[in-house]
Amino acid sequence: MKKVNVVKIFIKMLPRYARVSLPMFIVLQTLSVAHGIFIGLLAPSMQLFFDRVENYAMGQRPLSAAITGLIILGFVQIGSSIIAGIVQFTRKMYYNRAEGVFSLELHEKINKLPPICFEDTKMLNHMNKAFKGKSESVQFTERIIGSITFFAVYFIIMSAYLFRVKPILIISLLLIFIPVLLTQILRTKFFTKAEDKSAPLRREFDYYENCMTGRAYFKETRLLGAFMFFRKQYKDTLSILNKIRFHAVVKSDLAQLGVQMLSLGGHIGILLLLLNALLNGHISVGAFVAIFASVDAMFHLMTRWICYNLGDVASSFGRVQHYLNFLQIPENNGMDVQVPKNMDISLRDVSFTYPNANLRAVKSISFHIKNGETVAVVGENGSGKSTLIRLITGLYVPDEGDVLYGKINTKEISGRSLFKNISAVFQKFQCYQMTLGDNICISHIDISKDDSGLDKICVQAGLDKNDSQFIDGYNTMLSREFDGVDISGGQWQRIAIARSYYRKHRIIVLDEPTAAIDPIEETRIYNQFAKISKNKTAIIVTHRLGSIKLADRILVMKQGKLVEQGTHAELLTNEGEYARLYKSQERWYKD
Ligand SMILES: Nc1ncnc2c1ncn2[C@@H]1O[C@H](COP(=O)(O)OP(=O)(O)OP(=O)(O)O)[C@@H](O)[C@H]1O
């Protein structure tokens, strides 16, 4: 990562932050400046009041002057409290809004990155850091702006006031600054060290807790009697964690005690300065009372500024930089073109290696799929079937060779153009914690759901929406966590199939679509599939060789290579890899 300084990062963040809502931004910053002015005016207005009371007591001024002083002091006090409340409220609103806007921007950015990024560990780490940086970027920007619009304004007014009362009193700001700064340095030193040591342990400890009590784990944990195992791991990790925390707290408390002594010294120093000035007649009683009463507020504000504003900026700076760098990653989206609906797909000498992998997952593959053809891809585990599907659909582009839709190369066009006519059921399909209807219709949010169209699709996918489990029909929530229902793996798979049918498509890809479905229903689903995919290009990946006789052609993969292709009958006659796989499955049923 390129090294840049806080100022450069802030300059990049400021316009992004202000753009969230310019009018609200201006109001917030104006209010923040006003808040700084009001707080800064507290000491002078207090002095004014006490001076006038003293003058009145000595008969030098009328009572009305003291009352006016009281009104001014009250106005400044009440005004500062009201503005503080409004600033806090507005800041919170702005914060939430900015978080929402930045999150959406980041989601859109990720959506534009090539899908292969999700296979790259470095990229996934980068993404992870960008998410953290995004969350901290709002606070980072706000803390710096606050330092300027509130703290700088306050300290300038306070310095000017102290200077006007007696120049030497400016030293009191230094007497406050030094102990507070020391506290922050020590706090950061001890806690950062402890945090570095404890963060991985905390993740481990949370994980064990989840293994004991989490919904996804409870079946195995109970049945295999693994509770005591996780309990021990949890206890061991907890005791190490507690030791680290204990040492950090002891060290930090001791340091804090030392610094508190220093702060006390600061307080005494200011008191002596003030007493000296008062006794020598350099300042009035009013000024003495006002400054002495403001010392606590100055300590408090200095602590807030150094510990929270400067401290947070220093600790989040690296992550914010990551976030901004992530937004700069080139998107390489390719051209938006109109891909013709009816075209052949050709693979020419295609090879592909996953990022951070040594071996090629797919090696020098060439074949041609005619428009409207149904092709099945078979092969042993790890032979490259799913990778081949990702290359055909354009999710990934080959390192070598080309995938062509007619004459259009998948390397040159945008995913948006390419995916327009493609639908798919993936091997690891998603079970969305949403209603049955939403689970099927996610591909077209702008189309109003028409029940009769949905009914037809459900029948084709072998899904019965009148099943007693779908208590509210298409509105049934499919998640226990959201007060809905749990359904079986087979039913989820049918929903995934219905989802793929619902999307308008010319090409459909089914990667192990019926692994969780019983054989009788599987045959019915494949027969339905043959009907609906008529005149459409269909690619099916499956291990169940009995169900792919319907394919016009079967491609057989082995160790990343295409080793055979032909119809079921041709391949059986060939007595090659397909015949070997088929016969080994057939034997199970015959025996
Ligand atoms: N994300 C990945 N990163 C690195 N290597 C991968 C990744 N995904 C798959 N591979 C490797 O690529 C090869 C082909 O995997 P692929 O998933 O395409 O095989 P498959 O035939 O679909 O397997 P299965 O039948 O088990 O689903 C395997 O050696 C696998 O280990």
UniProtKB/TrEMBL annotation:
Its main location: membrane. It holds the Pfam family ABC_tran. It is found in: Cell membrane. CDD domains: ABCC_MRP_Like. Residues 36-295 form the ABC transmembrane type-1 domain. Residues 345-584 form the ABC transporter domain. The chain crosses the membrane at residues 20-43, 63-87, 144-162, 168-186, 281-299. Keywords: ATP-binding, Membrane, Nucleotide-binding, Transmembrane, Transmembrane helix. GO terms for molecular function: ABC-type oligopeptide transporter activity; ATP binding; ATP hydrolysis activity. It is a multi-pass membrane protein. GO terms for cellular component: plasma membrane. PANTHER family: ATP-BINDING CASSETTE SUB-FAMILY B MEMBER 10, MITOCHONDRIAL, ATP-DEPENDENT PERMEASE MDL1, MITOCHONDRIAL. This is ABC transporter ATP-binding protein.
